[in-house]
Write a sequence for this structure.
């Protein structure tokens, strides 16, 4: 029963796709094609992310992460979070395991949020594409709006989340394996 409860959303989704395929075969096959594409993408992205996470976890001591991105890191922690997030490759779901390792290493919560925000909006390849496709003024304007916006959102969230909630998030990150 516990297994059914754990995978209920997956099972409901499978049931919906089966019913959809019975009702409208072309729509069901299209949905299965999307699922297949997404699975292939995840299989190509997730293993390298976890290899890099393992290396980060082993090679970078907690003290160094705390020094450069922890509570007392100030501006250098913000800048490092933006650089790491901007230089990252892969879809946004790859950022969350990295953020979990950052939390285990004692990275300040606002810097974790800035890292996730930078991963999602300030990637270097995306910036270069925007420069070539939409023009340099657009790309620079978007970047100059996004960076302060990410920082503002991160600090606003930190003010809105209680210390107990934040400690609970860090506790859950510690339990992550």
């Amino acid at each position: 029963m516990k297994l059914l409860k754990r995978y209920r959303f997956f099972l409901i989704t499978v049931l919906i796709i089966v019913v959809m395929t019975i009702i409208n075969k072309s729509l069901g096959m299209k949905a299965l094609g999307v699922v297949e594409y997404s699975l292939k993408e995840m299989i190509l992205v997730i293993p390298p992310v976890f290899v890099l996470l393992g290396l980060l976890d082993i090679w970078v001591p907690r003290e160094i992460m705390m020094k450069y991105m922890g509570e007392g890191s100030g501006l250098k922690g913000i800048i490092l979070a933006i650089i790491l997030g901007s230089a990252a490759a892969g879809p946004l779901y790859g950022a969350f395991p990295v953020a979990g390792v950052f939390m285990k290493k004692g990275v300040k919560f606002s810097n974790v949020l800035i890292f996730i925000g930078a991963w999602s909006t300030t990637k270097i390849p995306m910036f270069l594409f925007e420069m070539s496709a939409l023009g340099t003024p657009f790309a620079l304007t978007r970047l100059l709006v996004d960076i302060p916006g990410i920082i503002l959102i991160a600090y606003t969230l930190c003010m809105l989340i209680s210390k107990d909630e934040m400690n609970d998030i860090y506790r859950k990150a510690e339990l992550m394996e």
